[in-house]
Structure formats: structure tokens, C-alpha cells
Amino acid sequence: MIIRRSNERGYADHGWLRSFHTFSFANYVDRNHMGFRALRVINEDRVAGGHGFGAHPHRNMEIISYVLEGEMEHKDNMGNGEVMRPGDVQRMSAGTGVLHSEFNHSKQNELHFLQIWIEPKQLGIKPSYEQKAFPTVERQGQWRLVASQEGHDGSVSINQDLNLYSGLFSAGEQVAPPPSRYAWLHVVNGEMDVNGETLSAGDAAAFQPEESINLTGKAAGEVLLFDLA
Predict the structure, then answer these.
(1) Where does the Quercetin 2,3-dioxygenase C-terminal cupin domain lie (predicted)?
(2) Cβ neighbours for 130, distance < 8 A, ≥ 6 positions apart
(3) Is 161 exposed, middle or buried (0-12, 13-18, 19+ CB in 10 A)?
(4) Which residues, 6+ apart, have CB-to-CB distance to 34 below 8 Å?
(5) How far is residue 69's CA from residue 76's CA, in Å, rounded to a whole number?
(6) d(Cα 33, Cα 18) in Å, to the nearest integer?
(7) Of all helices (H) and strands (E), which one includes residue 137?
(8) What is the separation, in whole angstroms, between the first and last Cα of the chain?
(9) pTM here?
(10) Cβ distance 192 to 218 under 8 Å?
(11) What does the alpha-carbon distance between residue 158 and residue 161 come to, in Å, rounded to a whole number?
């Protein structure tokens, strides 16, 4: 197990946007943290009320947005326009090229979300978009598949051999993770005991195939688990 601590991440403060970068991104370059397997970006963003990212392009990248607090308004040149709330998972396959914007839907309240980039399995596909809600009851005390290559079990589909799980765990609760190959575990909030180490909000850990993952809640929290080829 290799731990990536929250306070070791890259950080950028643009006033209206405060962003932590788990892996190299924009002006933050760390050759020791360029990604993990197909997982290329995990940005934890906090966007002030009334602000956001204006229309900008993406190409040949799978982009997952995961709202933690507040509401995010999405628009793109494919004709999609939706508001994301906590529990929603959005997947955008940029493929041959897409133009989109992301704004804080509130003029007053902060938006807190994760933006995740995954390198695609196939390049040059037709751009597409998908958004689904995963209620708390489906994730409490268990792992809920929220993204997968074939869209299994009602998850959003993704152009990569990857399974992404979300789980909400109470203090003292011990839940065995689903089978994984290479695994990246990201603590969204709360505090978890992982193989005897305490991981807090923003901390992450990488695992090799067949390596055991023992997770127990120390303080109620939310965890994402990436199963990667």
C-alpha cells in the first residue's frame, strides 16, 4: 500500500476557485504523481457562488464529475444541460471533441466537487454524455458500482476497463471491498482505518493486484474505490 496524503497534493488558489490536485495538473507538475494506471486526474474543487468554468474544449478523455456539496450546472455543445447535486455521477466522453461549461448553480453557496479524468480505451469515439443519481440508501454501508465499462448494475458507462465504486461507512463499520486488480482508494470525507493506517479526507492509497484491503470506519465518511486494469 502506497499512501498519498491530502497535504502532499498540488494546490491552486484562483480566488473564486480553490483546487487540490492528486496528480499533476495545469501548473502543478510532479513526475512522481502523473496518474495511476488509466486514472489521470482527481481534482477536488471548491467554486465560489456565481462562478465557474466557462465554455472550454476537451478531447479523447473520459471525465467524471462527482458533487459533494452544492449544485453544479452543466452545459455542452451536444445539447445537454443539467444540474448536478450530491449523489449524482456525470460521465462525459470527450472523444473527437466536446465543448462544455460548469458553473456553480448558486449565487451564494459554495460548490464542492471532484473532477476525475480517465484515459480512454478507444480514441476518436463520438462524444457522449450521461448522468445518474445514486441515492444514499444505495451506498450506505456498502459499495455501489457507479461507473463501469459496460454500464453494469445501473452504473454510468465509461470507455475504459475500469470499475468505480462509492461507499458510505459509519464509525466502527467494517466492509470488505469488492474484488479489484490495481486499486486506488480515495477518502472523500470522514476518517477510515485502511490496513492499520488512518486515512482522512483527501488522503488516498494505491494497491497492487491481489493486495489485501482492510477498511474500517473511524469517523463516518465517504470513500471512492477505483478498480483498474
Answers:
(1) 145-228
(2) 90, 91, 92, 156, 157
(3) middle
(4) 23, 24, 40
(5) 22
(6) 20
(7) helix 136-139
(8) 17
(9) 0.96
(10) yes
(11) 8
Give the cell for residue 26: 495545469
Give me the domains of the chain, ranges plus CATH numbers.
Answer: 2-228 (2.60.120.10)
Cell numbers for 78: 451536444
- Residue ranges for the binding site? 56, 58, 100, 102
Write the single-letter amino acid at 19. S
Distance CA 49, CA 62 (A): 27
Q: What is the pLDDT of residues 42-92, one digit of tens each?
A: 999 999 999 999 999 999 999 999 999 999 999 999 999 999 999 999 999
Enumerate the known binding-site residues for Fe cation.
56, 58, 100, 102
Give dist(CA 101, CA 68) in Å, integer. Answer: 18
Closest to 177 in 3D by CA, of 148, 216, 205, 131: 216
pLDDT tens across 16-46, in order? 999 999 999 999 999 999 999 999 999 999 9
Question: What's the grid cell of residue 88?
Answer: 449524482
Strand partners, 45: 19, 113
d(CA 122, CA 105): 33
9 contacts 21 by C-beta, under 8 angstroms: yes
Closest CA to 26 of 49, 53, 5, 66: 53
Q: What is the DSSP letter of 136?
A: H
Grid look-up 444514499 returns 136
Give the contacts of 172 (CB within 8 A, at least 6 positions apart).
Answer: 216, 217
What number of H helices and E strands is found in the chain?
1, 19
